[in-house]
Amino acid sequence: MNIEEVREACISIKGATESFPFGDDTLVYKVMDKMFAYMGLESRDGEFWLNVKCDPEKAIELRECYNGVRPGYHSNKKYWNTIVIESDVSDVLIKELIQHSVDEVIRKLPKVKQAEYNNLSNT
To answer: Which UniProt keywords apply (predicted)?
Structure first.
């Protein structure tokens, strides 16, 4: 998976928006005005990184299993993981982790907002 394919995976999430609140080199993805992923458009040491929210226990397990999963860069390392896009993390797992991140965001919303999200059409 390359950076453009990751972008497509993020923007294809139901209700996802894409913006540049941190400058023109960092893409941010949100659902219900809450961030679920962000990634830099410039490589770091030849790598492109995607940052996603993650259940704390799952975050640790992933870091232990994959070289391409690291504690969240510039974020709360308990709840965020950085995924090296072209690494030992499969394309399928990257997509699963994007969806897991969305699920984590939605789960923490008030019940009314959760219902509002669940009633969105998948455009």
So the answer is: DNA-binding
Tell me the DSSP string of 71-93.
EPTTS-TTTEEEEESSSSS-HHH
pLDDT, tens digit, 9 for 90 and up, residues 73-96 = 888 888 999 999 999 999 999 999
Using alpha carbons only, what angle is made at residue 84 by residues 13 and 81, rounded to the nearest 5 degrees?
Answer: 65
Classify residue 66 by burial, with Cβ atoms within 10 Å: 0-12, 13-18, 19+.
middle
Structure tokens at 3: 């950076």
Q: How many angstroms separate the CA atoms of 66 and 14, rounded?
A: 28
Prediction pTM value: 0.93
- Find the mean pLDDT for residues 112-121: 91
Greatest C-alpha distance within the chain: 43
